[in-house]
Write a structure and sequence with these properties.
alpha/beta, seven-stranded mixed sheet, two-stranded antiparallel ribbon, 7 helices, globular
Length: about 220
């Protein structure tokens, strides 16, 4: 898989920033080729520009169908030779045009230990359900919401005095670590998908001693 990333955002872009810093510090052997937002006021666009990364706004409004919007995104990603698409707070369902253009090449980071608490407000769901452990999942994107093969997970304890805000903040810290690591794993190769499982070869798995180096 080529190491050119396309990052899709809708908001503040904190996970985008984690990817930017990992590539800048050479902990992640990849290049962010373009950042695309469906919202022109997304704060993450400013983060990308400050890092010298090309940005595009492709609004989801005004299209005759969701697929038409996705086709334009595919066109722009392909024009920049993107090999892996990373959703970083992208608040849109990914449709067939993107899934077909990038099979097993779209990643998302989600603030729970999937399959628990898919969709929005995952930290709130965790608090309301009274779980003792929540966390972070990086997974491939499929046509089913938050249901693709899991690349990496990190656990975050739920404390007795946690609020939705405090739990979400601690989960976010782990997202910023887990997402670049998972991207490195995928770019490093040596893996396959078996049914729903993401399976790494023994050689590939042993390279995780230096988890953010995609070529370690």
């Amino acid at each position: 898989m080529n190491r050119r990333l396309g990052v899709l955002i809708s908001g503040r872009g904190s996970n985008l920033q984690a990817l930017i810093e990992a590539t800048r510090d050479r902990r992640l052997d990849a290049t962010i080729a373009v950042v695309i937002s469906n919202r022109e006021d997304a704060q993450g666009l400013a983060r990308a520009r400050a890092a010298g990364v090309e940005t595009l706004t492709i609004s989801h409004r005004g299209w005759s169908s969701r697929d038409d919007h996705d086709r334009v995104i595919v066109r722009e990603l392909r024009a920049r030779d993107v090999g892996l698409v990373c959703l970083a707070g992208y608040m849109r369902l990914v449709g067939p045009p993107l899934l077909e253009a990038f099979p097993n090449a779209i990643l998302n980071v989600h603030p729970s230990l999937l399959p628990a608490f898919p969709g929005v407000d995952a930290p709130r769901q965790a608090i309301e359900h009274g779980v003792r452990v929540s966390g972070v999942t990086v997974h491939f994107v499929t046509s089913e919401l938050d249901n693709g093969p899991i690349v990496l997970q990190r656990a975050v304890p739920v404390l007795d005095d946690d609020t939705v805000e405090t739990l979400a903040a601690r989960i976010l810290v782990e997202e910023h670590k887990a997402y670049p690591e998972a991207v490195a794993v995928v770019l490093g190769g040596g893996w396959r998908i078996e049914d729903r499982r993401f399976v790494r070869s023994a050689t590939s798995a042993s390279s995780s001693l230096s988890p953010l180096r995609a070529d370690s």
